[in-house]
Design brief:
This protein is of the alpha+beta class and 266 residues long. The protein is 52% helix and 12% strand.
Amino acid sequence: MHDRLTPVFHRLATLPQVRAIALAGSHATLSAGPASDYDLYVYTEDDIPAEVRRSMGLAFSPDAQIIDAWGPALAWTDPISGVDFDTMFFGTRWIRDQIEKVMQHCEPSLGYSTCFLHTVRVSRILFDPSGWFGRLQHRALQPYPNLLAQRIIALNYPALRDCHSSYRQQLEKAATRGDVISLNHRASAFLASVFDILFALNKVAHPGEKRLLDLAQQLCPLRPPELREDITALLQTAATNPYGVVAAVDRLVDSLKALIDAHPSG
């Protein structure tokens, strides 16, 4: 563990709202590279005011910033090592509900259905005096529900091509308009559902937005044989030959459908 991490979570643990602190991301999964930052998750019973969070961050670095665009967060760069710290503040009730949403109620989303489940599963506990996070993590580590996998596929697969206003249809219209921004946006949403289906089919919690092709190869024995090539072709086509994007979508969806038909979930 980086020697700059210990004083950080020790200091964060002094805040009265904090119930647990965990390390997630690449440092938790032992896959960090030289440029990897530290992803700290601080679980709180009540909101911590922004000025309190910033004051805490300034104890670590003069460049500490409050970044609440994606939820309460604090970021800074360690002035000695140059390592970046991203600290997210999650409510205990909220994260519990996210885990129960998928593990108990088997509720899917359109893309990224089980990302928070993944975060809790891979976390390394740094501070958990009551054992609350340990119990939550134990719940998250239970077997992936078959019904959850089925529902993720049932929600996401039709959106790829089979329903009105499918991603395929939206991409075709964007190509007809020559709308490169919409092409990029809809291709990203299309791929979010592709990966949601793929991880569900393999009953693997969705690992997030980074290194997805590499992680799919590592974690998903069930995957289209030309997944990397098909996705690369889709993205290159959307950027350079918009009128070919529909054919690229069809190749990817056809291979995914063959996989689903051959390995029905559950």
